[in-house]
Target: Protein kinase domain-containing protein
Amino acid sequence: MLVARGTIGYIAPEVFCRNIGVVSYKSDVYSFGMLVLEMVGGRKNINVEVECTSEIYFPYWIYKRIELNEELALRNIMDDSDREKIKKMILVSLWCIQTNPSDRPTMHRVVEMLEGNVETLQVPPKPFLSSPSVSPHSSPSH
Model:
């Protein structure tokens, strides 16, 4: 690969930073995870129109909600079944966007996780490239 191509925010870190890893099928897993997070959140993964910087990077914002076991505050959640499906999609996506390609699941494993039970899924480590550790309810920082 001579030139990196793709949409900013969906490109795996190893595409633009070779010391993270090599470009492989795991790069596509990263892009898939970001796409699913955007679908679940109903917004792009970066929202520059918010005042609170912790809400700018959606994967960080949703990770903090999951980590603190807070209400997801997402639209179109009608009942507990929807809530469970969305939580499963978020957890799987967070595994997909791990910075280190070796920490990401294969697409075969992604399908298994999506078909499985949400209770069997662990919260993944926070992606290295995420925003600094601040509360999602903290005051705006500029």
